[in-house]
Write a structure and sequence with these properties.
Blueprint (H helix, E strand, L loop, with lengths): L3 H4 L10 H9 L22 E5 L4 H6 L6 H13 L7 E4 L6 E4 L2 E4 L4 H18 L3 E5 L1 H8 L5 H4 L1 E5 L2 E6 L2 H5 L4 H21 L4
Parallel strand pairs: 1-2, 1-5, 5-7
Antiparallel strand pairs: 3-4, 6-7
The structure holds uracil (URA).
C-alpha cells in the first residue's frame, strides 16, 4: 500500500523497480548541500532482513556504500556474532545524504531534522516495498522516526514492532555502542545488541 508520503508524490507510484528508484535517488540533490553523493541501499532484492540506519557518515559519503565506517564495522562484527549474513541482508538509511559541519579537516555528522527525515521517507517506503523483507529493523531513533512516522524512545520501545503493517524490530544504532563511556558499559550495550540481533534472526525464519 503506498504510504502517505508517496501519495504526496504521485510520480513515485509509476516507478517500476528498485533500479529505477535508485536512479531517482542518485540523481537528486542533497536537501542540505555538501554531500558527495547519495548513498543507496545495498543487498539483494528479496532479502529477509532489512536494516535501516540513520544517514551515511563520512566514510559512507566518500565510498558511496552504507555502513562502511566505524558504525558499520561494529555492525559487521555484531552481525557475524549473531549469525546474520550481511551479504544476504538489505542495508539502507532513512536519509540518503551525509549532513555535516567542517571542523578543521574533519567532517562532523549532524543529526537530521524531522523535516529532512520526512523528505526522504517516501524513498525509504518505496525501497521497502520492492525489497519486501520479512522483518525490518530500525537501528536507532532516526530510523524509528522514519519507519513509524513519529519519535519514540528506544529504551521503552525496544523489541518487536509494527511499521505501517510491516513486521519490525526496534533496536539501538551501532554507533551508540561506540559512544558508551568505558569498557564495561560498552560490553553491556554490545551484549544487548547481540541479543536483539539473535532474536531478529529467529523472527526472520518465520512469517
Ligand atoms: N550510520 C548510519 O546510520 N548509516 C550508515 O550508513 C553509516 C553510519
Amino acid at each position: 500500500m503506498p504510504s502517505r508520503d508517496q501519495a504526496a508524490d504521485p510520480a513515485l507510484r509509476e516507478v517500476a523497480g528498485l533500479d529505477a528508484l535508485n536512479a531517482i535517488i542518485a540523481g537528486s540533490a542533497p536537501l542540505v548541500p555538501g554531500a558527495t553523493q547519495a548513498v543507496l541501499g545495498e543487498g539483494p532484492e528479496g532479502a529477509v532482513i532489512a536494516f535501516v540506519g540513520e544517514q551515511p557518515g563520512d566514510q559512507e559519503d566518500r565510498q558511496g556504500r552504507p555502513f562502511v565506517g566505524p558504525a558499520g564495522h561494529m555492525l559487521d562484527r555484531a552481525l557475524d556474532e549473531a549469525g546474520i549474513d550481511r551479504a544476504q541482508s538489505y542495508l539502507t538509511n532513512a536519509v540518503k545524504h551525509f549532513k555535516f559541519v567542517e571542523r578543521g579537516k574533519r567532517r562532523i555528522h549532524q543529526r537530521p531534522t524531522t523535516g529532512e527525515v520526512r523528505h526522504y521517507r517516501r524513498w525509504l517506503d518505496k525501497e521497502l516495498e520492492f525489497i519486501d523483507p520479512r522483518i525490518t529493523v530500525a537501528l536507532g531513533a532516526i530510523a524509528v522516526l522514519a519507519l513509524v512516522g513519529k519519535a519514540l524512545p528506544i529504551s521503552r520501545n525496544r523489541g518487536e514492532a509494527q511499521f505501517q503493517g510491516r513486521r519490525g524490530f526496534i533496536t539501538v544504532h551501532p554507533s551508540s555502542i561506540l559512544r558508551q563511556p568505558g569498557d564495561a558499559a560498552r560490553a553491556e550495550a554490545y551484549d544487548a545488541f547481540i541479543a536483539d540481533l539473535r532474536q531478529i534472526r529467529r523472527l526472520s525464519r518465520t512469517r
